Amino acid sequence: MATFDPKPFGPIPDDLSVVPTKGESWSKKWANWWGGATIASPTLPMTATARFALNTVRRLLAEDPDSLGQYMAQEMDYTRSWVRDVLCENADTPVILDASGTAAILTATRILSHLADQPGEFWSVTTDEGGSLVPATLKGRNPNELENVMFQPTSALFYDADSPVLEYPQGMTVTPPKMVRIAGKTNAQILDEIKAAVAATSGPGCIMLPHVTKTGRVLPIREVGAFVAELREAGRQVFYIVDDIQGMGRLPIEAVSQPTSYCDAYLFGSSKALGGMLIASGIVVRKQVLESFAEKIRAGNQAPCFPHFQFSNEWQERIGEGLLKPSAVSLPEIVSMREGLRQLWIRGEGETFADRRRFQLAHVRALRKQVVDALTAVPGVSVLEATDDQPLVPSIVCFRCDKPGWTPGSMKKALQEGNPIVTPSAPIGRYVRLDIPEYRQMPSVEVLAAKVRKLLSE
Q1: 127 - beta bridge partners?
Q2: Final residue of a domain: which of 288, 306, 341?
Q3: CA 88, CA 16: separation in Å to the nearest integer?
Q4: pLDDT tens per residue, range 110-128
Q5: Are residues 326 and 147 in contact, defined by beta-carbon separation less than 8 angstroms?
Q6: pLDDT of residue 143
Q7: CA–CA separation, 199 vs 215, rounded Å?
């Protein structure tokens, strides 16, 4: 096992927090926090687990520093086990741990690029409703350099965002991603556009499809997986990544189970529907993909680019411990993500996980109806609703104000001013987004609707 040395990071500050702090205190904004798109409102199960991990690290540093690495490795492996259980994956399926969802996209795309048979151009196809940093990441930029928009772990324990990341293979040119527009299109039309975009390419590349978009659209991930399988049978080298950063925790288990049966890498994060802290993510990857990558990366000349504990000990050794940076994946955020997965597993009524998910989703659909009924009763407000060929998850509600002079940005700003503070997620195109949380009680629909009505009447 590679030895992790925490000394270069110095002592852990006494005031290091596991709760994200920005703007007004949580005591003032927590009650009406609908903003789960990026920052889940902190709950006791998620924060207490993270705080316990942080305090354990403090104690081991003081009393038994030689056992710190073993403790961190065990906690990371326990998290990997929960990931496999929730996703119905095999016990030997590799799970890579990372910081933000964008960091996971960077890691996944660059690992897959090293499997390309030729080092020329590497193309990508994605949609226009992914994360804001997705295009920059797929263009080959390091999102850690975009300091004004890149989220970092809240505690960032032993985490270093400034050190090198995995580079693309030498001689490879990364082309700008081909963007497939989502709004107003059926899933069949989206699938046809993805096929057309890939048909216009040659050489190796990847498709990266969000399972759930920012407006809550559910995209045809398995149908795209079948298309990629056909391409491979025809001799094309096409990789496939499913970005479930928005979707994990919003869907029935049947929709996400055994992801390595239909994609090369499946990404998810903890700080949205799971209710975890800012910020941690996981990458579930096909075993043969990581085996091929380990062989290629050991034969190359890549500088150290992986933090300790990002891979299990087995895979750290196979990839080569010379590729490990001095830093580590931040433990408090990872265990908070694990608690989010555990809460997802036990929440609801039923004998099986699948039964409990069906129970919970029925509950969320009932809550959604309350929100939609209250908003549509306000003159000048309309809500994005699902159709058979444009499905939506029930826990994301997008509404718009048809009254002249109101933009999604101005509505969000006005909702967050005065008393009470009502906080929606960041605007999505023409829409204001609300997230219905499963991990805590839904905010007051009456307060939300009353404030929207008041604003539109002024």
Answers
A1: 180
A2: 341
A3: 36
A4: 999 999 987 789 999 999 8
A5: no
A6: 63
A7: 28
Report the b/e string of 421-430 with b at 16+ CB within 10 A. Answer: bbbbbebbeb
Task: Please tell me whether residues 390 and 330 are part of one structural domain.
Answer: no
Residue 386 lies in a domain: yes
Examine the pLDDT at 150 and tell me if it is beyond 70.
Answer: no
Question: What is the C-alpha to C-alpha distance for residues 290 and 315, in angstroms, rounded to an integer?
Answer: 8
Query: What CATH number is given to the structural domain containing 431?
Result: 3.90.1150.10
Q: Which range, 25-39, 137-151, 360-374, is most confident? A: 360-374
Higher pLDDT, 131 or 94: 94
Q: Are 102 and 239 part of one and the same domain? A: yes
Going from the C-alpha of 26 to that of each of 33, 68, 160, 447, the distances in angstroms are 9, 32, 27, 17
For residues 138-166, average pLDDT: 75
Task: Report how many domains make up the chain.
Answer: 2
CA distances from 68 to 6, 45, 323 (A): 9, 23, 21
Give a yes or no: residue 13 inside a domain. Answer: no
Q: Where are the alpha helices (DSSP H) in 67-139?
A: 68-86, 101-113, 134-138
